């Protein structure tokens, strides 16, 4: 399969929505229309350093999505990249789509001048983690969350 990765375009809404809803299902996080509208607006807000890539097969069908953003790294005194969301349709996993997406992310990070891109994933995302172990370096950091009550 041939995969092409590009920045998301407004014409990609239907493919993006389908992929993003499937991503939400994967993490048992139902996505309502308000969330979809908010994230879609972030992608096209020129004041917001939030970006999206879409992977398409040779027929132009969306098979993967990636959301990433810029974030400050105070200890480094610079900005770095943060990968928020990555989803490849299950039937296209192992097709090279994830490699194509990470190659595109690498190029985008270079263009932004980021020294690296970080992300987190679920402990039980075994297939994804196998790809990440091949593509990137695992850090020493553990993730915590302070729930606001």
Write the layout of secondary structure elements.
Blueprint: E1 4-7, H1 13-26, H2 33-43, E2 50-56, E3 62-73, E4 78-88, H3 97-112, E5 117-119, H4 126-135
Parallel strand pairs: 4-5
Antiparallel strand pairs: 1-2, 2-3, 3-4
Number of helices: 4
Task: Report the count of strand segments.
Answer: 5
Major pleated sheet: 5 strands, mixed
Q: Between the first and last Cα atoms, what is the distance in angstroms?
A: 48 Å
Short key terms for the protein model shown above:
single chain; 149 residues; alpha+beta; Aminopeptidase; 5-stranded mixed β-sheet
Describe this structure in words.
With 149 residues, this protein is α+β, with helices and mostly antiparallel strands. The chain has one domain (4-135): Aminopeptidase. Helix content is 34%, strand content 25%. The protein contains four helices and five strands, in the order βααβββαβα. It has helices spanning 13-26, 33-43, 97-112, 126-135, and strands spanning 4-7, 50-56, 62-73, 78-88, 117-119. The protein has a five-stranded mixed sheet, sandwiched between helices. A hairpin with a 5-residue loop joins strand 2 and strand 3 (62-73). The longest helix is centred in the last third of the chain and has 16 residues, at 97-112. The chain is globular. The mean pLDDT is 95.
